[in-house]
Amino acid sequence: MSSAASREEREALVDVAVPAPRPGALALGAVWLGVAAAWVGVAHLVVGGRPLITGPVETARAFVEAGPALWVDLAATLARALAGLGLGFVAGVALGLVTGGLARLTKAADGVLDFARSVPPVLVLPLFLLTLGYSDAARVLTVATGVSVIVAAGVSTAMQAKASGRREQLRLAGASWWQVLRWTQPFEALPPLLVSTRVAAAMAIVIATVTELVAPAASGIGVRVIGAQIAGNTGELTACLLAIGLAGWLVGWPLTRLHRRLRGA
Amino acid sequence: MTLGRLLRATVRRGHSVVLDGVSLEPSPGERLAVVGGNGAGKTTLLRLLLGLERACDGVVQVAPSGCGYVPQSVEDSLFPWRSVLSNVAMPARLARCADADARAASLLELIAPTIDPRRSASRLSGGERQLVAIARALTAPGPMVLADEPFSALSPSARDRVRRVLDQQLGRRALVLVTHDRADVTALGARALELTGGHLEAA
């Protein structure tokens, strides 16, 4: 009876999320129309005798002129960002589990994490360049360093994200630490973990691009940005901005969806 | 067997004294109802007995593990990602009772017959959450049930039904009930104690 009920119950477990009203197509269209209008508006701004960015038509032309090479550069940047994100995520989760799991360490770790968060991740790039040379390994490790701090802070917070009422009920029922972990942790930890992963994913792309600007690589969107800046090609610069934004959206979109689903938003 | 004991327990919060030398020792099967105004310290008294709060003076012998507890705020005490049945069966499952689920199901049937046990606990109304919390407290295998205003969100008919079920299902278990409603005291045949000015006296 007991095992049958458990199986039945497992099947019946309903998603925590309560579907929220989805933004209507009209609202979504209005937002994108607003963005396009703002883009055209800014494209008409002339700063120092030059437009700050190009308008939609000129940017589309720049995309066409750049051809597949732009997407190859974007792929190179994304590859570095994702490799760094993967490494940093593993290191951050391990660090966060240790600091968040041990109550006494948590307070001490807060200070360390605040300290680490204040150091721009790109500042560690010269250290890696000195030890590893101008290599992708140095760039990936720089991304991983930045990501690991964000993820560690998120995991550490997630480890403490147990509602006191549930913790009390488990404690009164004589639950072991493992049972408390099993009954609460995966579910309560997921939302803060997803938030930090979303931030870390965006940051990974930012850091990967900046490492290419600081220490030029054979390929990458940062390299292309420097080239476009030297050539005074505003159209290509705008195209690079859009491409990197698109990459960020593509990486962040599944995480955002999952997070909204869990929040019931 | 002792069910927990407070001996001249004092709790202070800043400069204010919440409980001032309070003594309480429930006996097996005894039903106690603690009444008193808002902020009198009733919830603190219950939590002290459960070991969820600390006294700054006096002796506190905490209630044994496995006692049922209906907190005043049930919302964050339920596990919204689990089913109603899983929530109700939780104390018995953790105590490795063989019939945990069957026991939980039958109590749910008595206390909240309209709630599907397989439903997600995240989709319960305020009153339903309170019913589930009461059923969970009764599923706990310990020798005492402590309930902090357990009927506050219930409709009059549900309140009557749950009082009856609680009365029948307690068996030899002790009950410490915090309530504002004297009708609860009468319906459960409890001995009323009044908490005023941090002191506990027979009402």
Quaternary form = heterodimer
Gyration radius of chain A (Cα, Å) is: 23 Å
CATH fold description of the largest domain in chain B: Rossmann fold
Helix content class of chain B: 25-40%
The helix/strand class of chain A is mainly alpha
- Spatial strand arrangement across the major sheet of chain A: 1-2
Structural class of chain B: alpha/beta
- Our count of domains of chain A comes out at 1
CATH class bucket of chain A: Mainly Alpha
Number of beta strands of chain A: 2
User: Major β-sheet of chain A, in short?
Assistant: 2 strands, antiparallel
Structural domain tally of chain B: 2
Chain pair sharing the greatest interface:
A-B, 29 and 38 residues
What percentage of the residues of chain B does DSSP assign to strands (E)?
25-35%
What is the percent of helical residues of chain A? over 70%
Tell me what you see in this structure.
The complex is a heterodimer of chains A (265) and B (203). Chain A has 265 residues and is mainly α. Chain A has a single domain (51-263), classed as MetI-like (MetI-like fold, Orthogonal Bundle), CATH 1.10.3720. Chain A has helices at residues 2-12, 25-43, 56-66, 68-101, 103-118, 125-132, 136-159, 164-172, 177-214, 221-231, 234-263, and strands spanning 46-47, 50-51. Chain A has a two-stranded antiparallel ribbon with strand order 1-2. In chain A, a hairpin with a 2-residue loop joins strand 1 (46-47) and strand 2 (50-51). In chain A, helix 4 (68-101) runs antiparallel to helix 9 and helix 10 (221-231) runs antiparallel to helix 11. Chain A is globular, with a radius of gyration of 23 Å. With 203 residues, chain B is α/β, with parallel strands linked by helices. Chain B folds into two domains: 1-67 and 144-203, Rossmann fold; 70-141, no CATH class. In chain B, 33% of the residues lie in helices and 25% in strands. Chain B has six helices and nine strands, in the order E-E-E-H-E-E-H-H-H-E-H-E-H-E-E. In chain B, the strands form two sheets. Chain B has a six-stranded mixed beta sheet with strand order 5-6-7-3-8-9, sandwiched between helices. In chain B, strands 2-1-4 form a three-stranded antiparallel beta sheet, covered by helices on one side. In chain B, strand 1 (5-13) and strand 2 form a beta hairpin. The longest helix of chain B is centred in the middle third of the chain and has 14 residues, at 126-139. Chain B is globular, with a radius of gyration of 16 Å. The model of chain B has no long low-confidence stretch (mean pLDDT 94). The interface between A and B is medium-sized, with 29 and 38 residues.
